[in-house]
Write a structure and sequence with these properties.
The strands form ten sheets. Strands 6-5-14-16 form a four-stranded antiparallel β-sheet. By secondary structure, it is an alpha/beta fold. The longest helix is centred in the last third of the chain and has 29 residues, at about 880-905.
């Protein structure tokens, strides 16, 4: 998202137009003693829903701001990674809504083809039922039931998290509108020659019996073997050694390749080899794909079972021999191994190779093996007839957009390089899947002639072809094909809808770095192709949520975190604040329960401070709040700090720096507001000066109101609950105006004055802590001011100093008289002197310190003795001797300090 200022007051629609309350509400001073997150969550989410506060389109004159949610799969429960992703989006939407934008946060879910189908098949398998037993139609009924169940669960989780989604515009990747968009894109790409049907190597899942996208393949380190084999020349003049990790695929070998400049093989190129076991004759070919320096410099070529070999085979017109079927079972091309599972075939063929004397050696070999993310089966590179998208023409437009500056802004920007590297090296995309759940490919075949026609529906197919005996392609499209259209298909495309015209392009996409290639890239190139515009201005990339030890969360480790469990234990606000402010764009986040507890404690701090404020705002109405009157130092300072914090938070949210935003919010609320201002305010609130009390009440109400607005996007429930008790205007804090920077509230003089007071009070409290004097015991304080100006500030605020430094007597001057024995501290602009006689019993303190000297003498003597022992020094490890010498220096330095302190006390 480009740096955006919030809308000006003139641009912001009035609250009254959005159902806001015209009259101001007075404070409701009775708040429970403790904050109950569950009660607030159960109260306010239904209230927000019934009020329709999250619906887009209610501010027709305002500037739109749009986010489409990355649709979660309808495969199960949302995890903690979803909670991070959705919370960051909600923070942006809530902030922009309060800044006066017409915000649309469009929710939806993804049908997740293979993932969902696999889940349903697993459920049926437990009942000894297969999808083939049910047939396509009945099986799809089962999947729709599953979808409805888990979509409802996702709704519940969104509500628990407090997400401000516009449910009136919710979409599903298989709903009719999106299906129409999918068919339109398919047909148009086909008509442009960018979708074709062909035979190529793809990732094949033998368990699910379908092609897979790259993202559905997980590479795992496997302890395997490297088999070195001898392929003899037909003329008996020698042999070529090759190596393979998959000896069963040799049954599909159609050549052995060497580098054309490899001197070892120059006389063998063009000769014929005899494939062991099978006896098939295959040529020796020359191809620059082979690395001379690697291994023997010769590689077996299996075009039907290896993507690189397929390319080599294409260049040399080699046969493509598929030796196994769709279940991973060896077929008739495997000869004597027909009917054997591929793993069983491997064992048997190795035994036969050994018996024939062509197996030279078996070497242990650790390598990366692709596994199906869904079924867990080892993925087979497999030659198959599939549908593909020709990617290069589509990629070129996306690359050009990034290079000419009109493309998407990546946050952090380093991810642009990752995106460009992938899209510059992109291969054609296999989009067909051998599944039943998904968008069925809009292609029809004549059962009599075999003729194929691509159309938007069967009626159009009949009209185009003039044929009536049409049967639709059995395959469905890759899930990423439909989700790649998400930013514009959800808004009504291909129709020229009002939502599309108003809310597209969208403003920001929030997603993890793990799907930049597979989803983000596809959304960009399809949007450029079909809308002529980038789908979003910014892509905010976040990392993964890992466990406290930095490990990826997984079922096998049992270290996953259920966001509902976090909410149940600590409340949605605590989870949201922890997970959002603990994140840095592009970086992984470690989930720690103690951090959630700290966030819960922060919520309690806000609650307790608000309870105090409300107890002192009884009878104050919204109209009574006036911060233009005569204000004290602390009042002017807290207004300045609120103003400064509002400005910085607006800037940081626009820059997606949620971690720094959280730090500023935490420090302002905990330190400035609670620990300092509220304590200072008590003197006015409990004092006899009615005018000062009214001013402080106004400032307190004003600052607390604005503070709750700043915290609302992060902690919506507690902020709404407290805000409703405050004097306020409007129905909900979700529509309250975002605090804007106001130059009139800048007050550097009050800041300088307050900083002096805080430094002074902290310094006195530090001296008290040093000599163990509790705040209940009053002390004498003499302040030597460095200037008349500083002296005036100190005298003007002596009541605060006396109260918060805990003084029995307080004297300030440019050259005040002071006793000889004092404890002192220097702050900017002044020196503080605390007479020892008022702090401690000097004789008792000297006695205590002398005991400390005796203890330190013993320690120094012990270490000296050890280091003076030649035997110890000669035998002890260097590290141990170094540690002892460090102790010696430390004990000696401490003893010198204590002796100096005793001398000072004795005068």
């Amino acid at each position: 998202m480009a740096e955006q200022d919030q809308l000006t007051p003139a641009q912001q629609p009035e609250l009254e137009e959005n159902g806001g309350t015209l009259a101001g509400s007075g404070a409701k001073t009775e708040m429970p003693t403790t904050y109950d997150p569950k009660a607030a969550e159960q109260k306010w989410y239904p209230y927000w829903m019934e009020g329709g506060f999250f619906r887009a389109g209610q501010r027709p004159e305002a500037k739109p701001y749009t986010i489409v949610i990355p649709p979660p799969n309808v495969t199960g429960m949302l995890h903690i990674g979803h909670a991070l992703d959705f919370t960051l989006q909600d923070i942006l939407i809530r902030t922009k809504r309060m800044q006066g934008y017409d915000t649309l946060w469009l929710p939806g879910t993804d049908h997740a083809g293979i993932a969902t189908q696999t889940k349903v098949e697993q459920k049926l398998r437990a009942q000894n039922i297969s999808r083939y037993d049910l047939g396509r139609e009945k099986f799809l009924e089962q999947v729709w039931d599953w979808k409805d169940q888990y979509a409802a669960t996702i709704h519940e989780q969104w509500a628990k998290m407090g997400l401000s989604l516009d449910y009136s515009r919710e979409r599903f990747t298989l709903d009719e509108g999106l299906s129409k968009a999918v068919r339109e894109v398919f047909v148009k790409l086909y008509e442009k020659g960018l979708i074709y049907r062909g035979k190529r190597i793809i990732n094949w899942d033998p368990a699910a019996r379908t092609a897979l996208s790259d993202i559905e393949v997980e590479y795992k380190e496997v302890n395997g073997h490297l088999y070195h084999l001898r392929y003899p020349l037909k003329d008996g003049s020698g042999f070529i050694t090759v190596a393979t990790t998959r000896p069963e695929t040799m049954l599909g070998d159609t050549a052995v390749a060497v580098h054309p400049e490899d001197e070892r093989y120059k006389d063998m190129i063009g000769k014929t080899l005899v494939l062991p076991v099978v006896g098939r004759e295959i040529p020796v070919i020359a191809d620059e794909y082979v690395e001379k320096e690697f291994g023997s410099g010769a590689v077996k070529i299996t075009p039907a079972h290896d993507p690189n070999d397929f390319e080599v085979g294409q260049r040399h017109n080699l046969p493509q021999i598929v030796v196994m079927d769709e279940s991973g079972t060896m077929n008739s091309e495997a000869g004597p191994y027909q009917g054997q599972d591929r793993s069983e075939c491997r064992k048997n063929i190795v035994a036969d190779l050994k018996e024939q004397g062509v197996l030279i050696s078996i070497e242990d070999h650790v390598h990366q093996v692709g596994h199906s993310e869904r079924s867990g089966a080892v993925v087979e590179p497999y030659l198959s007839t599939q549908w593909f998208v020709a990617m290069q023409p589509l990629a070129e437009a996306a690359i050009q957009a990034q290079k000419d500056g009109s493309g998407v802004n990546f946050v952090p920007d380093r991810f642009e390089k990752i995106y460009l590297h992938w899209i510059e090296n992109v291969r054609d995309w296999c989009i067909s899947r051998q599944l039943w759940w998904g968008h069925r490919i809009p292609a029809w075949y004549s059962e009599s002639t075999g003729e194929m026609v691509v159309a938007r529906d069967e009626e159009e197919a009949r009209r185009i072809s003039g044929l009536s005996d049409l049967k639709q392609d059995e395959d469905v499209l890759d899930t990423w094909f439909s989700s790649g259209l998400w930013p514009f298909s959800t808004l009504g495309w291909p129709d020229d809808s009002e939502d599309l015209k108003r809310y597209y392009p969208t403003d920001v996409l929030v997603t993890g770095y793990d799907i930049i290639y597979f989803w983000v890239a596809r959304m960009i190139f399809t949007a450029l192709e079909f809308t002529g515009e980038k789908p979003f201005s910014d892509v905010l990339i976040h990392g993964l949520v890992r466990d406290a030890e930095g490990r990826k969360m997984s079922k096998s480790l049992g270290n996953g975190v259920d966001p509902l469990e976090v909410i149940e234990k600590y409340g949605a606000d605590a989870m949201r604040f922890m997970i959002s402010t603990g994140s840095t764009p592009g970086q992984d986040l470690r989930f720690r329960w103690e951090k959630v507890e700290q966030a819960r404690n922060f919520a309690n701090k806000i609650w307790n401070a608000s309870r105090f404020a409300l107890m002192n705002l009884e009878g104050v109405a919204f109209e009574d709040i006036d911060i233009s009157g005569k204000l004290g130092t602390a009042d002017r300072w807290i207004l300045h700090r609120l103003n400064e914090t509002s400005r910085d938070i607006s800037r940081l949210i626009n820059a997606y720096d949620f971690g720094e935003t959280g730090r500023l919010l935490y420090n302002f609320i905990w330190d400035d507001l609670c620990d300092w201002y509220i304590e200072f305010a008590k003197l006015s609130l409990y004092g006899s000066d009615a005018e000062a009390k009214r001013s402080t009440q106004s400032v307190l109400a004003y600052v607390l109101d604005r503070t709750l607005r700043l915290i609302h996007p992060f902690m919506p429930y507690i902020s709404e609950e407290i805000w409703q008790h405050l004097p306020h205007q409007g129905e909900t804090i979700t529509l309250a105006a975002w605090p804007q920077y106001d130059a009139a509230l800048e007050n550097p003089d009050a800041v300088a004055e307050m900083n002096l007071l805080m430094d002074l009070i902290r310094a006195v409290r530090n001296i008290r802590a040093e000599v163990n004097v509790p705040m209940s015991k009053k002390v004498e304080l003499i302040v030597k001011a460095g200037s008349e100006e500083t002296l005036a500030i100190i005298e003007r605020n002596n009541v605060y100093i006396s109260r918060f430094a805990g003084t029995s007597s307080f004297e300030a001057g440019l050259h005040p008289e002071a006793p000889e024995k004092v404890m002192s501290a220097v702050i900017t602009g002044a020196e503080l002197l605390l007479p020892l006689s008022g702090l401690i019993d000097i004789e008792q303190e000297i006695a205590r310190l002398e005991k400390e000297v005796q203890t330190l003498n013993s320690e120094v003597e012990r270490v000296d003795k050890k280091l003076g022992n030649p035997g110890f020094v000669a035998k002890a490890p260097a590290k141990v001797i170094e540690e002892e010498r460090a102790k010696q220096a430390d004990y000696s330095a401490k003893r010198e300090k204590v002796l100096a302190r005793i001398a000072e006390l004795r005068g």
